[in-house]
Amino acid sequence: MTTLLQVKGLSKSFGAVRAVSNIDFTIREGHCVALLGPNGAGKTTTIRMITGLLKQTSGKMEFQGAAEGVHYRSLIGYLPQSPSFYSWMTGSEYLIYAGQLCGLSAATAKLRAKALLERVGISGAAKRRIGSYSGGMKQRLGLAQALVHQPKLLVMDEPVSALDPLGRKEVLELLRELKQETTVLFSTHVLHDAEVLCDDVIIIRNGQVALQGAIDRIRENHRKPTIELQVEQDEHSQRWMSTFSRRIQSLLNEKDEGALFQDVQLQNGIARFTVSEMDAARRMLIEELAREQVKVSRLEVGHTSLEDLFMKVVTG
Ligand SMILES: Nc1ncnc2c1ncn2[C@@H]1O[C@H](COP(=O)(O)OP(=O)(O)OP(=O)(O)O)[C@@H](O)[C@H]1O
Ligand SMILES: [Mg+2]
Question: Which CATH number among 3.30.230, 3.30.70, 3.30.420, 3.40.50 corresponds to the domain 225-315?
């Protein structure tokens, strides 16, 4: 599949603050890419450099398919983190205005505005002032504005973060449709949004890429077996649980790569062990529980989720 945008060694410093540090990634045509990271990771800074609103300190961005003499910026549609509108305009007026700013004729802009208002599901409010729109409606209008010139790449900064749960769901569904039609890059700090929408994910932390690739491949490669264990409330069982978890934890601190137990989390009375080999770990655990006469209330096998990995990558 062809590469649409290639970002190489992109960095941005604000005085002493290194907001983005030597980022590399590729966006392939037709893919939907999530830029995922916690607050302050450098998402907005990266996006603003890609859209040409902020000059990078160093690094390059190569956009394929931009004709000679045409800045690639014109091939990008952009929805900022907090878009602002003229609240006295109607949705329709605003889109026609945005279309004309992008160089469309008045007649074409009008047609395009009508089609887009329908596309994003707010044609019923086309003649209402934007000031009366809900957050979700404004976000839809922002999307329509980003699409007005039929961009090759749609770039959105936290497109659903400011919305309530219903608005989020609606806009996520709309984005799911839109991504069939265009290449998409969007930022989010919520793994779920990346999971429901994207093909590829770039996880950034402290301005650097912590992990990137196809989300399905990442999910598969990092999947590890787990055992969840819960014991009765009696003092003996509870004491065993905390002693055993501590024992595993101290073994972990020795960083033995071949160890049977690779992680342990004790939370709300439930211990969750990540193990390298399920059969051996389960046998060992069951023998220990029997020997120590621990009253087990639940023992459940499973596997680590993408959420586990994400938490580890952004906090670890
Ligand atoms: N104009 C600026 N001047 C100084 N520092 C800045 C500026 N813009 C961003 N930063 C710093 O750069 C870092 C990255 O900020 P950025 O806004 O890109 O993060 P983000 O991932 O978009 O965060 P959020 O999830 O909160 O939107 C932060 O430490 C921030 O304080
Ligand atoms: Mg941001």
Answer: 3.30.70
**187 vs 203: CA distance, rounded Å:** 10
* Ligand 1 atom nearest to CA at 37: 21
Give me 315's structure tokens.
């906090």
Q: Which of the listed residues 21, 36, 45 should we mutate to test ligand 1's pocket, taking the one with most ligand atoms within 8 A of CB?
A: 45
Q: Which pLDDT does position 253 carry in this prediction? A: 85
Distance CA 162, CA 170 (A): 13
pLDDT (0 to 100) of residue 117: 96
Torsion of CA 22, 306, 2, 197, to 10 degrees: -110
Mean predicted confidence (pLDDT) in 202-221: 94
Output the CATH code of domain 3-214.
3.40.50.300
Q: Which residues line ligand 1 (CB under 6 A)?
A: 14, 17, 19, 37, 39-45, 81, 189
213 Cα: distance to centroid of ligand 2 (angstroms): 21
β-sheet with 76-79: strand ranges across: 76-79, 153-157, 183-188, 32-36, 200-205, 208-214
Q: Is 195 helix (H, G, I), strand (E, B) or coil?
A: helix
To 10 degrees, the CA torsion angle through 45, 47, 48, 49? 90
Fill in the amino acid letter for 70. Answer: V
Classify 63 in phi/psi space as left (phi over 0), alpha (psi -120 to 50) or beta: beta
- DSSP reduced 3-state for 78: strand
Please report, for the chain, the start and end positions of each structural domain, with discontinuous segments joined by +. Answer: 3-214, 225-315
What percentage of residues in the chain have a pLDDT greater than 90?
Answer: 77
